[in-house]
Amino acid sequence: MDKKMKSLQLRHVDAGSCNACEQELTALLGKDYDVSRYGIEFVASPRHADALIVTGSVSDTMKPALVRVFEAVSTPKGLIVIGDCALGCGVDRRAYASHGGVQHVVQPDLSVAGCPPTPQEIVKRLQEYMDKHTTV
Length: 136
Known about the structure:
Blueprint: E1 3-4, E2 8-14, H1 20-27, E3 40-42, E4 51-55, H2 63-72, E5 78-82, E6 110-112, H3 119-132, E7 134-135
Parallel strand pairs: 2-3, 2-4, 4-5, 5-6
Antiparallel strand pairs: 1-7
């Protein structure tokens, strides 16, 4: 019987960002947002992750690493894209060393727009992701 996800283990990859989105992700771990109370945790290894969370437009040097890390995530796996740069609509979308949005490398399951998106919006969208996906 399928059940709603009770926890979400995330592995973060910065594919080439300005670090504004990372600051918002870091805020999620503090006492104001404390995402662990919702069952959301950040893990050190992609093998322990349910989903990859990616920030920044994909630079030439990060493209192979992003693909390797995504392939290392256990199945079923998800891809969550945070911020306008990762969506391909940020200020560096046409930079010579950029592939643009993550969708040009791997297809995302969830996108959170904003420059940067607020921690509240990120939490809301992660909870929606958990509600939508099931575990065995």
